[in-house]
Amino acid sequence: FKMRFYFTLDFVGGKAKELCVALTDINGHIATILPEEDSFPLKTWGRENNPFWEKSLSLHLIYSYAASQGEQRNWKMYGSQLAHLALLFEKEEIPPPCIETIGGFSAENVQEVHRRLESKHTRGKLVMTVFGSK
């Protein structure tokens, strides 16, 4: 990949986490909310065949499940974290993704989305509206 980022976020895991590693620049940071199985192909410890070591990456593991199951008074941390992300977006330190609305949720539009995704030329997010949403 030619394009590199200082900070990437993984909210999906698996191949998405591998993509984050590939797209994160040297001395960059990756944040993930999902642990991986022991069989996950990317090594995070040790020096041999370890992209984190080779690129001097920081890996931030965000385990939010326990906190989300706790008392509601503990949930305020999510508000402060989201406020911080919102500030980064407002300052344009994190660019928003390109979003294209394809249309309503239909078989034809699902086929169109798949056609575009399979062409591997899609950038950003493809969105379909559901039940009259805008």
Could you please describe the fold and organization of this structure?
The protein has 134 residues and is an alpha/beta fold. The chain has five helices and five strands, in the order E-H-E-H-E-H-H-E-H-E. The strands form two sheets. Strands 1-2-3 form a three-stranded parallel β-sheet. It has a two-stranded parallel sheet with strand order 4-5. Helix 1 links the parallel strand 1 (5-10) and strand 2 (24-32). It is globular, with a radius of gyration of 18 Å. The two termini are 34 Å apart. The mean pLDDT is 83.
Defining traits:
two-stranded parallel sheet; Rossmann fold; alpha/beta; 134 residues; 5 helices; 3-stranded parallel β-sheet; 5 strands; globular
The description of the largest β-sheet is:
3 strands, parallel
Strand order of the largest sheet: 1-2-3
- Just name the CATH architecture of the largest domain: 3-Layer(aba) Sandwich
| Count of DSSP strands | 5
Please give the alpha-carbon distance between the first and last residues.
34 Å
- The CATH C-level name of the largest domain is Alpha Beta
Order of H and E elements:
EHEHEHHEHE
How many H/I helices? 5
> CATH-wise, what's the superfamily of the largest domain?
NAD(P)-binding Rossmann-like Domain
Which helices and strands occur, and which strands form pairs?
Layout: E1 5-10, H1 15-23, E2 24-32, H2 51-54, E3 58-61, H3 65-69, H4 76-90, E4 99-104, H5 107-118, E5 125-129
Parallel strand pairs: 1-2, 2-3, 4-5
